[in-house]
Amino acid sequence: MAQSNGSGAPGTGPARSARRAILWGGLICGVLDITSAVIISLANKGSPIRMLQGIAGALLGPVTFQGGAATAALGLAMHFGVAFTATAVFYWLSRRFPVMVEWAVPAGLLFGVVWLLVMYRGVIPLTAALRSLYLSNYVKRPLPALWPLPLLVHMTCVGLPIALAVRHFGPWPRGTPGEPVKSGMTGSVRKS
Length: 192
Fold this sequence. Notes:
Elements lengths: L17 H26 L4 H13 L7 H29 L2 H4 L1 H31 L14 H21 L10 E3 L5 E3 L2
Helix pairs in contact: 1-3, 1-6, 2-3, 3-6, 5-6
């Protein structure tokens, strides 16, 4: 399958777009991250269903473990929602800071660290505080550890695939060397 040069010209393959970048980035990130979570859960003699229910527990509290497959499915949907959100945030930032596309590997690894901090020290504590407002059976839990496994997983299974997907499937940010430039009847060429 031929790759597009970013111009979307007919016959050159699918055009690069924000939608494709966010779709593929979110899917790849979501699959890799949930796969690592399942492997870690099994290695710790846990259940992948219970792990997914635990994700849904961010909204439902302890009752999540009584919901069976329905709350596990909710946890999986929430997980992919976070993966697509992370990809959309990376994409948005990469439009403002084109170096994130030019240097996708280091930017992705760094973004994985930042996203870990956002989730583990921002989103998780915030949802815990909000749960106490609408749940009578609220249970306060300690914050999850940041090191070493969560850090490595977020760098390699979250940040890196998102950055590479945005670089591969998304349009080049304006002003970058890979951005296509219209040049009359010759179609588009890349800046060098």
